[in-house]
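Ligand-bound model needed. magnesium ion.
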Amino acid sequence: MTAMLGVLGGGQLGNYFVLAAKSMGYQTAVLDPDPHAPAGVNADIHIVAPFDDLDALNQLVSLCSAVTVEFENPPVTALEHLAQHVIVRPSASAVAIAQHRRAEKQFCQSIGLSVAPYEVLETQDDAARITSNGVAQTHLDPLSTPLIMKTSRNGYDGKGQQIVQQLSDTMEHWNLLGNVPCIVEQKIALDAEFSVIISRGEDGEIALFNPTQNVHVGGILDISTAPAQLDVQLLEEGQLAATNIAEKLDYIGVLAVEFFVSRNKLFVNELAPRPHNSGHWTLDAARTSQFEQQVRALVGKPLGDPSMTCSAVAMVNLLGDRWTHGEPRYELADSQTSAHVHLYGKKTARPGRKMGHLTFTGDTVDAAANDAVSLRTAITR
Ligand code: ATP
Ligand code: MG
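Prediction:
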């Protein structure tokens, strides 16, 4: 019988995992509480239940030989439970670090990597102290406003974040974020952002995709281009940092590391223990996609060739905001042989919701980026 692979989470990333696994001859089971989750349509089995539902987890155990994740926030206890019975990659301990901003920053610092200066706001008292005394009273680097306050857990696409313009407003922002543990970090003067997506196999083999340059708008990824057009030394530093992170975590699977570049210095922003939006171009412009690497690492196969199949590629996201005047005019992309439009099959478009993306390949990054942006404008005008 064909082996079945499981994935916690049924969003677009889970769906691409399912499709990659299918094309490699595996069956798949998805656990996601949303009956309309995109991956549910293509998976052989969709278990509709909360991520901490013990019966559902045991069902996965009985069906699957190995389980992975498509997002960083499944309960660590669920992963630990699964790991007692089946292969779980990445490990619960690696996911635990990536799902908590403080743990993530402390881990990066512990292996010698720089992160934006930050302070931990674990309790209301911490927030109150900063509000009345200023951050200088606390123990880390002196911080100056503006700061970004981020919830320690469950943030994505810029959600769970507040800009703090004045230290005296700290308490107000803490309340707006729901009185939960947070970090405040220095708002860095960004010269650029890039990500490194690394795959690490069960024997420690490493494969790196081309570093990808990213532009965010309103905290949400807008455009990714590869190869990143940044200082080669900085990119190599990023690749070394990602390798170091993966090795220190004894990571098996696909890991994305987001970097900030400021005044020629590198800061780790965050880790995603899974394929990443900024790696979607690998579906159309790499010899092996990030999702195929995820399957390969999960089942213990050698990793595929991550190299690009063209000189340059750009990926732009299609957010729900562009659905305001109806469904985009996809037919306008038909004649563009270097373009690929991807839709995630989500029923309802909401502002900021990722509905799909499109990629454009080209001879240069500038040409690919211009073409991708123009095509997006044309189909969603
Ligand atoms: P996602 O998980 O979708 O990447 P997120 O909600 O975890 O997003 P972050 O990665 O923390 O959010 O931030 C989103 C974007 O906001 C960053 O890529 C960057 O453009 C901007 N940003 C976040 N923190 C800082 C900072 N300290 N200084 C400058 N810009 C920042
Ligand atoms: Mg991010």
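The radius of gyration is 21 Å.
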